[in-house]
Write a structure and sequence with these properties.
The protein is 68% helix and 2% strand. By secondary structure, it is an all-alpha fold. Strands 3-2-1-4 form a 4-stranded mixed beta sheet, sandwiched between helices. The chain has a 3-stranded mixed beta sheet with strand order 5-6-7. The longest helix has 37 residues. The chain is globular. This is Protein-PII uridylyltransferase N-terminal domain-containing protein. It holds the Pfam family TPR_10.
Length: 1209
């Protein structure tokens, strides 16, 4: 017997703990096996992007190569299309000269690619390009005529008419396909939305309707291919021999879609032919295939990078040595009905393979063969030399047109060879031997990137991730059990008749196959082409934002995919285990292949952002049950029985084990439910479930400290944290920490470090930054003790937490230092590979630089973060991308580019709504608030109020009557908007509501949010002219901020001092006001040193006002000028309200000095800047400047009038 290579897998099977141990060992074996396959080292050979002298050939000239290079570089569609026409003409001229079929193919493909681009321009821009379109049609007609001329033939039917016929038939097939799959999806595949079970009637209908659909669709597509081939033959003439054109691949297996490639080969009978006649026969078949290929390309669905045009994509290494491949990718031509690609690993067409780098294979391999030549590909020596793929492809075929008896003879010969004795293992047949080798390779390929719940969080390849292994694993059974059926569904029926599979096992596997194949049909139908990227997260939308997405939403298909996954996992487990430990060709199959484990379904739903689905799955009655799968375990894992143990003892131990497992599983389910409710923002329910879990854990483990109890205590702490009850969060985190210390003693442990970090985060939210830093430092120290000098994600995370805390303390340079350390470590860990942790740290750096007033640096980091998130997640909606978009919006708001800010916030909002749908979510509420802030800054106060009210309503829907920082923040934002609008009483009302809630949340404990609300009230009373009240609130706010930060310089202390200074000045006490301004300026300079900052610039302007009011005009002008200079340093040439305000202040100063011309110059500049910022929106500041201009112009006019009057007198 042959030695089998051990594999492993990454799936979940309902097995005992011991079986799970064996499976985990298999996983490790797989990782070792996979990691041994080292990638080939890339050569560092430097290649040139031109054709060197003396290396040209007829189909690779300098002109052709340069055109290929320009096509690849060109991003303008019209210019690219023109270049394609130019290259097409080069190959058309070459085809006239050589008569070589491939040159006609190249030219036809290029003209069709150009045609698709001109049609795109027409559709998008309504530009009439009739002349260009007509010219291409003429060129395509000439190419068909030229190809036929090489065979001395003529087609009387115009190309356009034949294409119209074929496209009409193809459109009818596609309409039928979409309607049929829609009916199966919506009428037959009816699945319980909670348990995801199907009743027997729906199972039967799904299988029968799918089988009927596959048969009908396959027949219709074969008829189309036959129509096109028969048309070719009617022009070229019929070959003088028996022949059969056979379909391969998905067409042969009845898995073909209405957009699939054509994979084919030609069988012929050489009986009675001389060698010379055989060569002539093969030449005629090549011309036939070229002519058919031309027709297929003219359908307009062949991407030119799928062809072997060497100056565009040099698959077959035809370029001179050392010349760079242009590596063009056709992004515009839709992929549909076309020939299989010209890549060496594809090439399942009669021309076959045109090159290979594989050492054991012959360079070319044509699939125009005699019956004996083609059937001999099943022999082991050919299979091993060529790789099993070729043998497997030629194993299953279908007749498209030609001699049916020849095709039948071929099939008989194939099965005769497969049934013969293997030369590798004499105990096996050729078929079984190959089946074993094939299952090994396919398991390895699948399990290097298995389908897990996390797979559903990103866009996925329908063909590779869902369809491929599910169907190919059934086709392998054909080899193992000598089946003669063609399609997977028929193979499963045959296996049932052979008594290999039970009725229930057959149905489970047939449903798995149907759901995989049907999803492929659904995706291609929705895309209208052969595009396989799909998403279970994205919701179907007509929004312009998603028009450019490179995937299609299949969220409505998720019930079917849960049912599919419930079979795929036990099926994969069975194959792997029996491949490794039993004889896969003779082992007994399970009685059924389905594991509708609610926890597994919930795990998938969590990744799909379906929190309600998670809850439904985990709260279903079925989730309380531990299925009795012992019969399945014994079949799959026979070595696990223990005959030497006393039966009653065994039963008792088994009962205890099952009870303990059930309780542990129930506890885990309760914690998962808690997490799901927390993700929905339903924190009370989350806490209820975590408490139930905690009670069960304590019932299981008694007073004995246990990691699971500590974990659940931590979950409670995290939930109270998110609920805004920070004292309770700290209480539970301390309990969790104490238990972990009891368990692990003085030994440093990651779980202890994690609890320390959680405590740091809770104290951070509570506003106790020094305590937060203490805990984060302890966590960091322990992580470093555990991991030593070795970089580790947990160390990087602790550094980031310290950075965030120092940021809130106002120590921005320290914050940046920690974030940079964190970033350096993450890059050491992940190298050049994009990673969410790196993207997050880049975002943290952006936030820190924003607070420092270095907006361009902040934008740079946020854009790096966004680019990395998009590299990781592609166009797939993800919270990380949405967060980066929101950060950019906030920074552009700070920078005064309000339209850009609004654009980014809208993109962020659209993405978050795509993720969470109509379900209220804190991230949606937060983004609505950001939009409100941006519109407030822009001066569109009503819009700002509308967004803040939406945000507030959502926060209240999420948190109910429970006080929460999110609600308090929305109330404060509404106060700000009404303040900006000049409705000070309404602003005070909302500020008071916000203050009351913050005090309810934080009690008597000083907190930055309480201080902020007090400060807002002070500013509102200041604007109302109630200066004493304003001073009272500012003093309260200042006292609290000093309590929080102590003597440490902090922006909030400086801000409060500035507010007090402004109010005292307005009250007429300039001395006191100037004292507060001076204290504020000292603190800001301590924080920002010599770095220009908006707060310093604003304060300089305020001091200028004091100097002006007290008659010190020279100093006033100096402060105004210094403020303006600093603002221009910060904001550059970008218009900003702060710059405009400084210009206005200088204008006012010059009015007081009666220098009206100088005043107007500054007023005009301020006016123009406000116009650039606010457009046609009548902003209050803009109105004030316009009034100042009118008044100053009148004063200047009066002065001029007086001057002229005095001159005349």
């Amino acid at each position: 017997m042959i030695e089998r290579e051990n594999l492993a897998f990454k799936t979940g099977f309902l097995v005992s703990a011991e079986a799970s141990f064996w499976i985990s060992q298999l996983k490790k074996l797989l990782e070792m096996c996979v990691n041994k396959n080292e990638r080939k080292k890339r050569t560092n050979e430097k290649k040139v992007d031109y054709i060197p002298e003396g290396t040209e050939s007829k189909e690779i000239t300098k002109v052709m190569y340069d055109l290929g290079k320009e096509i690849t570089k060109q991003t303008e569609v019209e210019k690219q299309a023109t270049l394609m026409c130019d290259l097409g003409k080069e190959y058309a001229d070459l085809a006239k000269e050589t008569g070589e079929g491939w040159h006609f193919i190249y030219a036809t493909a290029l003209y069709n690619a150009a045609l698709q681009r001109f049609k795109k321009i027409n559709a998008e821009n309504e530009v009439i390009l009739a002349d260009r379109l007509d010219n291409i049609q003429k060129q395509l007609q000439q190419l068909e005529t030229g190809l036929l001329k090489t065979a001395s033939k003529v087609n009387k039917e115009p190309l356009s008419k034949s294409m119209e016929r074929y496209k009409g038939v193809l459109e009818g097939i596609r309409t039928h396909s979409k309607e049929a799959i829609y009916d199966i999806h919506t009428k037959d595949m009816l699945i319980d939305p909670v348990t995801f079970e199907m009743n027997e009637e729906c199972q039967r209908r799904t299988i029968e309707s799918s089988k009927c659909y596959y048969d009908t669709l396959t027949r219709k597509i074969i008829e189309l291919h036959k129509l096109m081939i028969d048309d070719c033959i009617s022009v070229l003439g019929r070959r003088n021999c028996r022949f059969a054109i056979i379909g391969l691949g998905s067409l042969a297996r009845k898995e073909v879609t209405a957009w699939s490639d054509l994979e084919s080969a030609i069988l012929y009978d050489p009986t009675g032919k001389s060698n010379e006649e055989i060569e002539k026969l093969k030449l005629d078949f090549r011309i036939l295939v070229h002519y058919l290929h031309l027709k297929v390309i003219n359908l307009g669905e062949t991407k030119i990078n799928a062809l072997d045009i060497p100056v565009l994509c040099d698959f077959n290494c035809k370029l001179p040595n050392g010349v760079k491949d242009n590596d063009f990718h056709d992004e515009i031509t839709p992929q549909g009905l076309c020939f299989d690609g010209a890549l060496p690993k594809a090439s399942k067409i009669p021309f076959g393979r045109r090159s290979t780098k594989h050492p054991t294979k012959q360079d070319t391999l044509e699939l125009i063969m005699t019956l004996d030549e083609m059937s001999e590909c099943q022999f082991e020596e050919v299979s091993i030399k060529e790789g099993y793929h070729l043998s497997d492809v030629l194993l299953t075929s279908t007749l498209i047109t030609g001699d049916e008896s020849l095709w039948n003879e071929y099939n008989e010969k194939v099965h005769e060879i497969l049934s013969s004795c293997s030369t590798i293992d004499i105990e096996l047949s050729v078929g079984k031997q190959r089946g074993i080798e094939t299952i090994k390779e396919d398991l390895k390929a699948y399990l290097t990137k298995p389908l897990t719940p996390k797979s559903f969080n990103k866009k996925m390849r329908t063909k590779h991730n869902i369809y491929r292994f599910a169907t190919i694993s059934i086709n392998i059974l054909k080899l193992l059990h000598h089946c003669r059926s063609f399609s997977p569904l028929d193979i499963l029926d045959e296996l049932h008749l052979k008594q290999v599979l039970s009725e229930s096992a057959k149905i489970d596997l047939q449903l798995m196959v149907c759901m995989a194949i049907n999803m492929r049909h659904l995706v291609y139908g929705r895309c209208g082409q052969q595009r396989e990227m799909a998403s279970f997260v994205t919701r179907p939308s007509r929004d312009e934002l998603f028009a450019a997405y490179d995937h299609v939403s299949v969220r409505d298909y998720s019930p079917a995919i849960f049912r599919f996954y419930a079979t795929l996992i036990p099926w994969t487990d069975f194959l792997l285990y029996n491949y490794c430990f039993n004889d896969i060709s003779t082992c007994k199959h399970l009685s059924h292949y389905i594991d509708l484990n609610p926890q597994t379904t919930a795990d998938i739903q969590k990744e799909m952002y379906m929190p309600q689905g998670v809850i439904n799955s985990l709260e279903s009655p079925k989730s309380n049950l531990i299925p009795n799968n012992m019969e399945s375990q014994k079949q799959c894992f026979p070595h696990l029985s223990r005959d030497n143990i006393n039966e009653s003892t065994n039963e008792r131990l088994q009962h205890e084990k099952e009870t303990s497992a059930k309780n542990s599983d129930t506890s885990a389910r309760l914690d998962s439910l808690g997490d799901a409710y927390a993700s929905k923002g339903e924190f009370d329910k989350a806490i209820q479930y975590h408490n139930e879990s905690l009670a069960m854990q304590r019932t299981i483990h008694g007073n004995h400290p246990h990691p699971n109890i500590a974990s659940t205590l931590g979950n409670l702490g995290n939930t109270y944290h998110r609920k805004g009850e920070f004292d309770k969060a700290i209480h539970y985190h301390k309990e969790s920490l104490a238990m972990k210390i009891t368990i692990h003693g003085n030994h440093p442990h990651p779980n202890i470090a994690s609890s320390l970090g959680n405590l740091g985060s809770a104290y951070f939210r509570k506003g106790e930054f020094n305590k937060a830093i203490q805990y984060h430092n302890e966590s960091l120290a322990m992580e470093r003790t555990i991991h030593g000098n070795h970089p580790h994600p947990n160390i990087a995370s602790s550094l980031g937490s310290l950075g965030n805390t120092y940021h809130s303390k106002g120590e921005f340079d320290k914050a940046i230092q920690y974030h940079n350390e964190s970033l350096a470590m993450e890059r050491t860990i992940h190298g050049d590979h994009p990673h969410p942790d790196i993207a997050s740290t880049l975002g943290n750096l952006g936030i820190a630089y924003n607070s420092k007033g270095e907006f361009n640096k902040a934008i740079q980091y946020h854009k790096e973060s966004l680019a990395m998130e998009r590299t990781i997640h592609g166009n797939h909606p993800h919270p990380g991308i949405a967060s980066s978009l929101g950060n950019l919006g906030n920074t552009y708001d700070s920078k005064g580019e309000f339209d850009k800010a609004i654009q980014y916030h809208n993109e962020s909002l659209a993405m978050i709504r795509t993720i969470h749908g109509n379900h209220p979510h804190p991230d949606i509420a937060s983004t609505l608030g950001n939009l409100g802030n941006a519109y407030d800054s822009k001066g569109e106060f009503d819009k700002a109020i509308q967004y803040h009210k939406e945000s507030l309503a959502m926060e209240r829907t999420i948190h109910g009557d429970h006080p929460h920082p999110g609600i308090a923040s929305s109330l404060g934002n509404l106060g700000n908007a009404y303040f900006s609008k000049g409705e000070f009483n309404k602003a005070i009302q909302y500020y008071n509501e916000s203050l009351a809630m913050e005090r309810t949340i934080h009690g008597n404990h000083p907190h930055p949010n309480i201080a902020s609300a007090l400060g807002n009230l002070g500013i509102a009373y200041d604007r109302k002219g109630e200066f004493d009240k304003a001073i009272q609130y500012h003093n309260e706010s200042l006292a609290m901020i000093i309590t929080i930060h102590g003597n440490h310089p902090h922006p909030d202390i400086a801000s409060n001092l500035m507010n007090l200074g402004r109010t005292y000045c307005k009250k007429g006490d300039h001395t006191q006001g100037l004292q507060y301004y001076t204290r504020s300026l000292i603190i800001l300079k301590q924080i920002h040193c010599d770095q220009p900052h908006p707060d310093i610039a604003s304060l300089l302007s305020n001091i200028g006002v004091v100097c002006s009011d007290t008659g010190d005009n020279e100093k006033a002008l100096q402060y105004y000028t210094d403020s303006l200079t600093m603002k221009r340093q910060i904001f550059g040439n970008q218009p900003h309200p702060s710059i405009a305000a400084s210009l206005h202040n200088i204008g006012t100063f010059y009015v007081d000095k009666h220098k009206y011309a100088d005043a107007l110059k500054n007023f005009y500049e301020a006016r123009d800047m406000y116009r650039k910022i606010h457009g046609n929106n009548p902003h209050p500041d803009f109105k004030v400047t316009l009034s100042a201009i009118n008044a100053t112009e009148q004063l200047l006019t009066r002065c001029i009038s007086i001057m002229f009057s005095s001159m005349h007198t």
